[in-house]
């Protein structure tokens, strides 16, 4: 990711954080919600998040900046969201594993982005933290398959709140880069 691109699109980062935070709060506030509602809400969230990544990839490509990881993340989000919404009745088990795969893949993209961006160390640490949270929850879902839908709902809600808050902080952090150039991390 190019620093100039990230700075120009800080608002999209904050909006993605707000969406994740709202998603997490909704899940935690109504844990008794039906599985079908959870599947639909997750499907919509994955599509919206995928669209944001896809649009960011198109904007980056237009500016001749790196866009491959954004495109991959966006397409994966769109694909998973469409699959979940198209087959909600049979999607529960598939959703479980698709969610795990999506969390692991998006976490890897965040971590890779931290090493590509020319940014202060604090920003890189936040990107790695986004990635690690996603990967840890994804791996936990794979290692401990369906010990109850309540546990899955709790993990998804915590993920949404944690990543949402961190992404909002990161968005405002990168907004400040527009006011002064970032200082590269010292090796």
What does this structure look like?
This protein has 187 residues and is mainly α. Helices cover 81% and strands 0% of the residues. It has 7 helices and no strands. It has helices at 3-8, 10-29, 35-62, 68-86, 91-116, 121-143, 149-177. α2 (10-29) packs antiparallel against α3. The longest helix has 29 residues, at 149-177. The radius of gyration is 16 Å and the shape is globular. The two termini are 19 Å apart.
How are the secondary structure elements laid out?
Layout: H1 3-8, H2 10-29, H3 35-62, H4 68-86, H5 91-116, H6 121-143, H7 149-177
Order of helices and strands: HHHHHHH
- Determine the mean pLDDT: 83
Number of strands: 0
Number of domains: 1
Gyration radius, to the nearest Å?
16 Å
Tertiary shape: globular
Given the helix and strand composition, which structural class is it?
mainly alpha
Bin the strand percentage.
under 5%
- Unreliable segments (pLDDT under 50, ≥5 consecutive)? none
Describe the structure concisely:
By secondary structure, the protein is mainly α. Helix content is 81%, strand content 0%. The chain has one domain.
Keywords:
mainly alpha, globular, 187 residues
